[in-house]
């Protein structure tokens, strides 16, 4: 029989906006900064976990399998099994989902699941012509051959390519993620003005959450090696306005596109951990669960319209659990782009989309914006790709407990044409 799986606790670092060069923390540094205070406040030793699972997309060369490196640095013991998962933007949620399945099946009792990403460490890479030049030079056997190979170099061979830019471009459609947001905005009639207004609201909500202390206990101060410390998400712009955003030029489809730096998620560094436990572990250590995972769902679709991923995955999740859109009291939809979130909301209200794509009898209905991303999202605090799925699950739990709601869904679009959703109930 499937066992219940509880969310016990969690913590994350502040999300730090990339400033044009490597930030103060690598992915493992971030995972350690989030993990130390979290583990220190638990009534059990760090070695009590059965596994560590970490989502990370841009793994750096010095930290292969960052889950294992982080586990060792966190003092979780040499015997701790730790592995890294990667499903683009869904990696942080995939770590929770994998842990959930292990515990549900009785193969583990307590797992530390997280996500860590330092997008500021994304590498610069050489063009393939440059790689071939280096290969010819290295394979030359004598001085004359080396000189001949050397003289074949061309300046274009050494022009660096921003690895993050290529990583955010789908290799099947050759569309970058911003362009896919433009596609679905066009399909659903989302306007530039609507997207800018949504972005302003995201910043306002995060600024309010910071001022009211709603993130206390979720965001832990991070301390860099040079002595500096970071205690809040630094991408928030409390003075943002529709008038200011209207002055920004389109980032991906000039001159008529509507996706701009102001209504898109920010390039950010950050990490998050969530502790999952079985009922046996809860009883053994006297734990106080915050929530229970009811179900999860992944969905695939055309990569060119990957932004609809939350609609497909969440709808399948709702149908399997005999729920309607209106039964969900609190929502976290990762804000990859304002236009993408708004297109998802429009899709659920569209009779034709719901009939032809979702297989429903008609329009699913409308999500009350007061129930959605109540404390802002990736537009205001950033989207460290491998982390965001973990953050939205953890924050959904904390927000529901604060608001006194029972049932919530965390969901996200995923580059490559995927979507993920998780159904949570508070305990």
Explain what this protein looks like in three dimensions.
There is one protein chain. This protein is an alpha+beta fold and 427 residues long. Among the domains are: 128-163, no CATH class; 177-215 and 294-426, Thiolase/Chalcone synthase (Peroxisomal Thiolase, Chain A, domain 1), CATH 3.40.47.10. The protein has helices at 27-40, 66-73, 91-104, 128-139, 143-151, 163-167, 177-188, 192-212, 242-245, 279-285, 309-320, 338-349, 351-356, 378-381, 388-403; strands at residues 5-12, 16-17, 51-55, 81-85, 110-118, 124-125, 161-162, 222-223, 229-230, 268-278, 291-300, 330-333, 407-414, 418-426. The model has no long low-confidence stretch (mean pLDDT 95).
Summarize it.
With 427 residues, this protein is α+β, with helices and mostly antiparallel strands.
What topology emerges from the helices and strands here?
Blueprint (H helix, E strand, L loop, with lengths): L4 E8 L3 E2 L9 H14 L10 E5 L10 H8 L7 E5 L5 H14 L5 E9 L5 E2 L2 H12 L3 H9 L9 E2 H5 L9 H12 L3 H21 L9 E2 L5 E2 L11 H4 L22 E11 H7 L5 E10 L8 H12 L9 E4 L4 H12 L1 H6 L21 H4 L6 H16 L3 E8 L3 E9 L1
Parallel strand pairs: 3-4, 3-5, 12-13
Antiparallel strand pairs: 1-10, 1-11, 2-10, 5-10, 6-7, 8-9, 11-14, 13-14
